[in-house]
Design a protein that fits this description.
Elements (H helix, E strand, L loop, with lengths): L5 E5 L3 H12 L3 E6 L5 H9 L3 E4 L4 H4 L4 E4 L8 H8 L4 E2 L1 H6 L5 E6 L4 H14 L4 E5 L5 H7 L4 E5 L2 H5 L8 E4 L14 H8 L11 E5 L3 H7 L7 E6 L7 E5 L2 E6 L2 E6 L8 H16 L4 H10 L8 E6 L2 E5 L6 H10 L4 E5 L12 H7 E7 L4 H7 L5 E5 L2 H11 L5 E4 L12 H13 L2
Parallel strand pairs: 1-2, 1-4, 2-3, 4-5, 6-8, 6-9, 7-8, 9-10, 10-11, 11-12, 16-20, 17-18, 17-20, 18-19
Antiparallel strand pairs: 12-13, 13-14, 15-16
Helix pairs in contact: 1-7, 6-11, 6-12, 16-17
Length: 447
Amino acid sequence: MNNPKRMVILGAGESGTGAALLAKQKGFDVFLSDSGEIKEKYKTELQNHQIEFEMGQHSEAKIMTADEVIKSPGIPDTLALIKKIKAKNIPVINEIEFAGRYTDAKKIGVTGTNGKTTTTLLIYHMLKKAGFNVGLGGNVGVSFARQVAQENFEYYVLELSSFQLDGMFEFKTDIAILCNITPDHLDRYEYQLENYIASKFRIIQNQTENDVFIYCADDALTMKHLNSISIKAKKIPFSIQQIVEEGAYKENNQINIKINNQEFNMYINELALVGQHNTYNSMAAAIVGQLYNLRKETIRESLQDFENVEHRLEFVAKVGSIEFINDSKATNVNSAWYALECADAPLIWIAGGQDKGNDYSLLKPLVREKVKFIVCLGKDNRKIHEAFMNDVDMIINTTSAKEAVQVAYRFATKGDKVLLSPACASFDLFENYEDRGRQFKKAVRDL
């Protein structure tokens, strides 16, 4: 293809900087613009590669000279600048779409409201163990574009958020995995669930009959949409509620994988990751292993020795007899449901933050059954008070991780667990969920 003469990149995080490096390598005239501060390490890289950039502003005159714009997933389409760019018929894509033009590697894409990070890392762990020349990117790790510029991987495992999928048009996954769909980020989708569902299903766009789509047959929203559209790829389901002819299913406390007349099974209590949601994640990863004809021992070992990601049901410490769990990555109601469902002790639940149009009714039965009291960690906690005031003995407001931890510890009794699983975004008090989780862990260690 002929390169557009000028590539403008909006956002100078890992994604934007990686895109700038690849664009420069491919001969584009590159200009990068970030309305905020650019981290020192990225500034140095841009300078070393003689890439023009600005920070603290968006210079419209320069941006509007673009032949194509690569936009950070964090920048909403509703931004006035983006509307102006599109009104001028300048294509707006993202880093994944751009990088996909320059690699022939096999691409495994993973999306879903919950579980996508764990599933992505589990597949990557499995393929690495099997000796594959594989890269990890997308919404996790090093940017895909940077790796296409600097590495020569034959496979990529990519975690793809709905925001990333929205900026992808010609990109194609060889294997697409949809973990589940529950309402999330509705503030970015005009509060229309159908818009969010359509965004998730973009992971199968451009797939052919030679590709594979792996999905959860127990997920109501997935199945409702699946049955209303035409899919060219081979469909492979996973389920813990029903036996499937080809795919993965649970039977007699085992997961069973049947692919291409080959069968693999493993007891659920042998899996490294506990909880129903992680059984699903392990099934999806095992299907990929079977599709690539990995040795059964490799699949088994990968599912046994995998270590979970930071901020996802992460054990922090035991202080006295009180256990602290960091689940800061639970930024929506469904993710918090999984954390509460896994818990096996009286809970003090730290929840709250920036609400995304949450419906807390799903959590009420678990809260009544397991939660002693709630510590709110956020600026506006009204919805949590309204949702659970009749379900727990006490709800306390706090505005810092340190305060939340100290309050939880003060009221905890022997054998309790303190669970940070916010069900909300972090941006009211923290930079991101990682910052929230790390401040929580520091506060626990400072007790």
